[in-house]
Design goal:
Length: 430
Amino acid sequence: MRHEQLLDLDRQHVWHPYGPMPGRTEPLLVESAAGVRLRLAEEFCGQRELVDGMSSWWSAVHGYNHPVLNEAAHRQLERMSHVMFGGLTHEPAVRLAKRLVDVTPPGLEHVFLADSGSVSVEVAVKMCLQYWRSQGLGGKQRLLTWRGGYHGDTWQPMSVCDPEGGMHELWSGVLPRQVFASAPPSGFDAPPDEQYLRHLRETVARHADELAAVIVEPVVQGAGGMRFHSPAYVRVLREACDEHGVLLVLDEIATGFGRTGALFASEHAGIVPDVMCLGKALTGGYLTMAATLCTPRVAEGISRGDVPVLAHGPTFMGNPLAAAVADASVGLLLDGDWAGEVRRIEGGLRAGLAEAAGLPGVRETRVLGAIGVVQLDHEVDMERATRAAAGAGVWLRPFRDMVYAMPPYVTGDEDVARICTAMCAAAAEG
Ligand SMILES: *Cc1c(COP(=O)(O)O)cnc(C)c1O
C-alpha cells in the first residue's frame, strides 16, 4: 500500500493510545527497526531514522531486531506459537517461571503469566482480595496507594492511578473508591521525611480493617509523572503492612529488569513484597506478556479457602512464543553487564541534561538509572516538542509537563548524547 493510503486508512479506522476517533494528529509510519533506531517510511523533519529514546514505552531494553531474541522467536514458532494453558503446559512457560522465581527477590515463588501489565495488576488485586476472603475476612476489599501513581488502564488498576493528574479522573464516580495517601516527597537520595513516614504508617493503620493490600510503584512513579522517591517510603509500607495485616503489592512493570540501576527497584529498599507485577521489559519489547508473582503464604491462603482456586485464566495465558522470547530476553540481560550499561547511560544522561537545567521554562532535570526527565513549568506542546526532537534525530514522546527518555540499555554513548540534545531541543521548543 502507498504511504498516504496507509495513513488515510489509519486515520479512518485505527484507534491509537489515548486518542480520539478519527485521529487528529498524524502518527509516523515506521518501516522497520534495528538496534536503537526506528526507520521511518518517509523523511520526517529531515530524518529517515530516529534514535529511540523511549524503548517503546520502557520495553525494548535490548533494542530492536536482536539476533538472540529473533532466534528464540523463530525456534519457538517452528514448534508451536500457542496452545491453551488449561490442562496443558510447555517448556517455555516452565522455564520462564523458574527464571523469574530465581531472579526476583527471595520468597516470590509462584508465577501467574498474564497477557499485559494491566491484567497482571488485576490478577494481583484478585489474589489479595481472595486471600482475605479465604481467611474469613471478606471485608478487606479496598486498596491503599499514594497519589501520583500509574498501574494501567483496566478497571482495578485505574482505581489506583493518580485520581487527579491522570487520564482517569473522568471515571472518578464509577471506579471502586480506594484509599489515597499523599504523593511521596521527591528525590531518590533525599533524606526521608519523618512527617511523611508517619503519614504512611497512620494511613495504613487507620484503614487496616478494610484494606486488602497496599499497591505502589517502588522508587519510580512512571506514567503518573516520572517522579523518584526515597526507598525508605517503600520500606515503611512493608513494616506497616506487616504490623497491621495488609498485603503489599509492588508494581515493577516499569521499574523491573534493571531500569533504575537495581534489577528490581524493591532491592533499593531491601524488602520483598507479597505480590509483584512484572511486564514491559519482560519480553524485551517483542510481545505482550506480564507476570504476577506471589509468596507461598498468599498462594496457600487462597488455595485453603472455600473457593480454593484463583479464578482467572486468560485465553492466551502462558503464550509459548512470548514466554520463549521473555526467557531469552531475561537470559540476555543477566548474561550481559546490564548494571554497567545502565550506570553508563545514567552518567550520559546526567552530563547531557545538565545544560537543560538552565533553559527558560525548565523547572528541573532528574536522572535515575536509565531514566532522564526534563520537568517543565508548563504543559508541553507535544507536536512542537516531538518535531524538535525528531529534527535532532531522536524519537521522544513527551507528556503533560515533561520531556523524558528511557533509552534501550544498548544505546551507545554518542546516541545517549544525541538523546540529551534532542531532549533539550524539545524542552526549548515545547
Ligand atoms: C505500563 C504500566 C502498567 C500497565 O501495563 P500495560 O501492559 O500497558 O497494561 C502498569 N503499571 C505500571 C507501573 C506501568 O508502567
